[in-house]
Design goal:
heterodimer, A: alpha+beta, five-stranded antiparallel sheet, 10 strands, B: alpha/beta, globular
């Protein structure tokens, strides 16, 4: 297949470039495809033996079908992951609506659920091609070596994504010697790139395997294995998806979160104590500073409570895949913008937490969200003052937005005219 | 298209790398983790999973293979997801909403449910329609019980709607119903025992459901305490009634299930190919069992007919035990009808085979001959003793190929003791007390040791006999016994036999036997009334009658066990010359180890041919050689590993006990062995005055013995 691929790229060179360039490319291809001497047979032991993997279930057809399923699930994860990334890093061409309010909840729930359900798929796929790891000779040409290196990269990055995802969902950061968010994002690009190359190289094999009818193996048929993998994905999904789909929560015995479990019936990611804000938020000197282009207003908690109060039923949807819905009430951000003389139809805002250090202490609220009547500086949850862990005295709550950007313990709101 | 994709992929990877650098991604940690997960997966997890798969393949019953594998796939996947949660390193002291569940319990619960489903499905799949009917009935009763429970709950507790807790209870109750149904099996005229089993199954399920699964789900502690039991006493009664009702319904349904009749002896229907197996030894039963396991439930599965002259499968390795009086004779035979429920058993001898018309004519013991058609014929007719034309052997020598042989030999030896006890003439007495075994292979070596043990075990009942006069002689034509065994081990075995007082004479052949003595090729004679021939077997004479091409007297076939020149006739076991692919020019030895595995391979090959695929050649290498040398002594060779003495003897017993078909027989043989430790062997003679029946050639042929050689 490698050789095919490289021949294809040679024909690319043939078509477009000058004859000198063509010759150079031809030399490179010849160098890549030159046969290399086989390694001594002495090393052909253990798994490198012929017939070391006797299962008749491993067929190209099985690998292809699993591969297609994986391409779909990786595609879903990649797209939903991109959405999450861009929502958190706004700007440029990306536009994200304020409605429906559950959209982010859904995309991120799908991202995590699909990722978890991919585990048996990837496992079965790697099982089905495992003997190829020990193919003999290990490589015949430099081109084949390159392809195998590419596959190693694909396998490693796929495993990286799933494992780091599992660890992050379980909030077990110690085994990961890196910052999860950026590494997960960048390795996703790497995996998708390697996947595209892999699909391109294997396309004829896949097409051939899927068109040719095959007979099934003995103890467990190919369909049986696929069904088992599907069932495994189903069991994983059912046992975890309750962290975002509340009705399934009782049977989701492996859900890392339960939507109703936490202070005021809502889970918490960072507590007031661990954020180091307890003194600041409980102080009677607390003031919310609203900064406009021309003037600045300082509001005490009682003054905030005296402003017109509004309610909204909105989910908190964490990037970790869990979500929970609450009834929030407080002051509209757009009212606060008007308070400092900015037209909320053309405004953007920056919400700042009282937290001293945190990657997420500041979040931006842009056009559609700022205008939205559901975007609140919430003072209450379910009719009670916010629990300190939920952001007392005031937190941002906006529709269709990741939980990390629903800034808690808000101390400062800077509003600008966006025109 | 492809080159565009490749270019795009490379560009994406480059973007990833550049972006990673610009983002300040940890350029040591990330590559380290990438390499780490690769090694973890390829070096540890996948080898473990593949090992687990191999283990499942070995341990799980064949018919369950798929379901156990599926359960294993699910278990491994769920465990990977659950492990970080179970370990719970992500928990933080001040935030109880992080990882609030009890994940170890959740994981156990999921695994338990998955394996219960696999178990129920495996039980339902294995075997016959009666079992499937049982599962269906059990499922129905389970649903009914769950509904009744729900209705009662509504009436008493006024709980509205389906709560998660009640959903779990319903699901578990229904699964339990199916499991109870799957363990109950209808047998005509056994209503009471069926109902008793049902009630017991209900009790057992109550401990699983009400004392284990439901508390687990509710998050309570599983204590199995008396208090818990008392609290759910009502459910115990309900579960027992459920079991009893299930059993009663199964009896009602079972009585209506179609019973296989003799009508199946007419030529096969067009849609269902018929595989006709001749021979009920290891090889023939191996074929039938495998066919049944792989296709018991599928539509279009071949119909399997097994023709055998005995209605049981003889466990030949334990024949010496019967001859030595340690085992009861019925205990080493497995009834064919019990072991092969989806196979039509025809108890008859083969008269003729018409391969042009694909028909075989068999003669039942009484009544008219029956002609049956076939699509595939399997010949596994075994071997008979080969006396090499030596004079007097057919008339006077004993052999050890059947239960009758073993019983005759035992009674003969004991009768000699009875006669010797009153014999005044010393020459005649010594003749009575001399046992000669010809052939120092496995059968001969085991037999001479066992017979010696038999005689010494009962000697105390014959106080007038002089132990010095008891003689046991093993004749062997080569310079060492047990030629299949490693030389050192064989030498050791020889030493042990001699230490027991057995005379082992090497490089000597039996040349003839008469009523009073055995003559040897070194010119000497031994005065004896007991000569046992274990020095040679030959394929059943039936193979010659049928006109196949022969190879060393056996049916010539290729490595797929297809008879040469016949795509629809297969031969295996002692009656076939199957080429050994490991040693060109050699043939596979006639042992039970081989016959069993050849049976599996032939069944797979027949199914392959029926499916339009090519048959696969058979490869197998002897796993182990085991020989028992009488009381708590033996020799074992597994590959290059040699073992002797008590451990080898225990291994012999363990291995063969595990290979004995059927739990019941295993229990019976174990009890026989246990009793033998405490009590002397029996000296009862059931037919004290009758001689051996004539062994004419026709009789031999008619009783085509399908038992294979002892190993």
């Amino acid at each position: 297949m490698t050789v095919d691929g490289v021949e294809q790229s040679r024909s690319t060179a043939d078509e477009g470039t000058s004859s000198a360039g063509r010759r150079r490319a031809g030399r490179v291809v010849a160098w890549l495809n030159a046969p290399l001497p086989p390694p001594p047979e002495v090393f052909r032991r253990g798994p490198l033996r012929e017939d070391a993997f006797p299962s008749r279930l491993r067929t190209t057809r099985l690998s292809s079908q699993l591969g297609i399923a994986l391409a779909v699930s990786f595609g879903i994860c990649f797209l939903t992951g991109l959405i999450s990334h861009f929502v958190q890093h706004p700007g440029g061409w990306f536009w994200w609506p304020a409605r429906p309010v559950w959209l982010y909840q859904a995309t991120q729930g799908v991202h995590v659920a699909t990722g978890l359900a991919t585990i048996p798929l990837l496992g079965a796929k790697l099982w089905s091609v495992y003997p190829r790891l020990f193919s003999w000779p290990p490589f015949r040409s430099r081109a084949e070596l390159t392809e195998r290196a590419g596959i190693a990269l694909l396998v490693a990055s796929s495993l990286f994504l799933l494992l780091s995802g599992i660890l992050n969902v379980a909030r077990w950061y110690a085994p990961m010697p890196f910052f999860f968010t950026t590494a997960h994002y960048r390795v996703a690009w790497l995996a998708v790139g390697a996947l595209v190359v892999h699909i391109a190289v294997k396309l004829p094999v896949i097409r051939d395997a899927l068109n040719r009818p095959v007979r099934d193996g003995l103890q467990m048929s190919r369909r049986g294995l696929l069904a088992a993998v599907g069932a495994a994905a189903g069991v994983i999904t059912l046992s975890t998806v309750g962290q975002t789909a509340a009705p399934l929560s009782p049977i989701s015995v492996l859900a890392p979160r339960r939507p109703e479990n936490g202070p005021q019936g809502l889970p918490v990611n960072k507590t007031a104590a661990s954020a180091g804000v307890r003194d600041a938020i409980l102080s009677p000197d607390y003031r919310l500073v609203v900064v406009g282009p021309e003037r600045q207003v300082e509001l005490s908690l009682d003054e905030l409570r005296a402003l017109p109060q509004h309610s909204a039923v909105l989910p908190i949807a964490c990037v970790e895949g869990w979500s929970a819905v609450g009834t929030w009430s407080g002051v509209r951000i757009r009212d606060l913008a008007e308070l400092v003389g900015v037209d909320p139809e053309h405004a953007e805002a920056e919400v700042e937490s009282l937290q001293a250090v945190s990657r997420y202490r500041v979040s931006a609220v842009s056009g559609p969200l700022l205008r939205d009547p559901f975007t609140l500086l919430a003072l209450q949850l379910r009719g009670e003052d916010l629990h300190p862990d939920h952001g007392f005295p005031a937190r941002l709550i906006a529709p269709n937005r990741p939980g990390v950007m629903q800034t808690k313990w808000v101390g400062k709101l800077t509003v600008r005219d966006a025109r | 298209m492809r080159r565009i994709l490749i270019a795009l992929g490379v560009a994406l990877m480059a973007y990833a790398a550049v972006g990673a650098v610009l983002d300040g991604v940890n350029l040591i940690g990330v590559p380290l983790f990438l390499a780490g997960v690769l090694i973890l997966n390829d070096g540890i997890i996948l080898p473990l999973v593949i090992g687990l798969g191999a283990l499942v393949g070995r341990v799980a019953p064949r018919a369950w293979g798929g379901w156990t594998r599926a359960a294993a796939v699910i278990s491994v996947s769920v465990t990977i997801v659950a492990l970080p949660l179970v370990l719970g390193f992500g928990r933080v002291a001040d935030n109880p909403s992080v990882l609030p569940g009890s994940y170890g319990r959740g994981l156990l619960l999921i695994l338990a449910l998955v394996w219960l489903v696999a178990l129920a499905r495996g039980l339902a799949r294995r075997g016959d329609p009666a079992r499937r009917a049982g599962v269906l009935v059990g499922l129905g009763v389970g649903v009914a019980v769950a509904l009744i429970g729900q209705l009662r709950g509504h009436m008493t507790a006024a709980a509205a709607g389906l709560t998660p807790g009640s959903a779990v209870t319903i699901a578990v109750t229904i699964i339990g119903g199916a499991l109870i149904g799957s363990v109950l099996r209808y047998r005509p005229g056994r209503l009471l025992s069926l109902i008793t089993t049902g009630v017991l199954a209900g009790l057992l399920w109550w401990t699983v459901e009400w004392l284990t699964v439901l508390p687990l789900f509710a998050g309570a502690e599983v204590s199995w305490s008396l208090g818990d039991a008392q609290a759910s006493f009502g459910y115990l009664v309900a579960a027992m009634i459920q079991g009893g009702v299930t059993a009663g319904l199964i009896a009602a349904v079972g009585a209506r299930l179609p019973v296989r009749t003799v009508d199946t002896l007419v030529p096969p229907e067009e849609t269902r190919p018929r595989v006709l197996i001749v021979g009920g030894g290891f090889a023939g039963v191996g074929v039938a069992r495998r066919l049944q396991q792989r296709h018991s439930t599928a539509a279009g599965a071949p119909e399997v007919v097994l023709v055998s002259d005995s209605n049981y499968q003889l466990f030949t390795p334990m024949l010496t035990g019967v001859a030595a009086g340690t085992l009861s004779q019925q205990h080493i035979g497995a009834p064919l009808r019990a072991g092969l429920r989806n196979t039509t058993i025809v108890h008859a001898t083969v008269e003729s085979v018409d391969m042009a018309e694909r028909q075989i004519t068999v003669q039942p013991e009484a009544g008219e001959a029956v002609t049956m058609g076939y699509d595939h014929l399997v010949l596994a007719v075994g071997s008979v003793p080969d006396y090499r034309g030596l004079p007097g052997l057919e008339q006077y020598a004993f052999t050890l190929k059947s239960l009758a042989d073993a019983t005759l030999l035992r009674e003969h030896v004991l009768r000699q003791l009875e006669l010797a006890d009153g014999e005044r003439d010393s020459l005649r007495r010594r003749r009575l007390l001399t046992v000669v075994v010809a052939g120092g292979g496995f059968a001969g070596a085991e037999l001479v040791a066992e017979l010696r043990d038999l005689v010494h075990s009962v000697r105390r009942f014959f106080p007038r006999l002089d132990p010095e006069e008891l003689r046991f002689i093993l004749l062997h034509s080569q310079d060492r016994i047990l030629p299949e065994l490693d030389e050192r081990l064989a030498a050791h075995a020889l030493e042990r036999l001699r230490a027991k007082g057995i005379e082992v004479r090497l490089n000597v052949r039996l040349t003839g036997v008469d009523a009073e003595e055995a003559s040897l090729d070194d010119g000497r004679t031994i005065g004896t009334g007991t000569v046992v021939w274990t020095a040679g077997n030959a394929p059943s004479p039936l193979v010659r009658e049928l006109g196949f091409e022969l190879e060393r007297g056996a049916i010539a076939c290729d490595a797929t066990m297809q008879v040469r020149g016949r795509a629809d006739v297969w031969a295996l076991g002692d009656c076939a010359a199957v080429p050994d692919l490991a040693q060109p020019g050699a043939y596979l030895p006639p042992t039970a180890q081989h016959a069993l595995r050849e049976g599996t391979a032939v069944a797979d090959n027949i199914l392959a041919v029926l499916d339009g695929r090519a048959p696969t050649p058979f490869r197998f290498r002897t796993i182990a050689l085991l020989v028992a040398l009488g009381h708590q002594d033996g020799a074992v060779q597994i590959g290059r590993w040699l073992l002797s003495g008590r451990l080898a003897w225990a291994l012999w017993r363990g291995v063969y006990l595990s290979k004995l078909p059927g739990l019941e027989k295993r229990v019976r043989v174990s009890i026989d062995w246990l009793l033998d430790v405490f009590f002397p062997r029996d000296v009862i003679l059931t037919e004290p005055r009758r001689g051996r029946p004539p062994r004419d050639r026709m009789a031999t042929m008619a009783s085509v013995n399908v038992g294979d050689d002892a190993r």
